[in-house]
Amino acid sequence: MAEPTYVYEGKIERGSGAIRMANLPAEAAPVYFGVHGAIAQHYGLNPATIKEPRAATLDYVIAAAAA
Length: 67
Hints:
single chain, alpha+beta, 3-stranded antiparallel sheet, 2 helices, 3 strands
C-alpha cells in the first residue's frame, strides 16, 4: 500500500451551540463553522433563534468540490 500523500493535523474545537472552530493549515486565524437556514432546520433548530449563523462544514465541502 502506498504512503498517504497528506495527513490532516489540524485541531477542531467545539464552541457554544453548533459552533465549531478549526485551526487549519495555512490559515492564521481559526475558521468558524456553524449552521444556518435549512441546515439548522434539518437538525431540529429554529433558524430564527440561531445567534451566529455561519457556513456549515457541508458548505465548505460543496464549495471545495465545485472549484
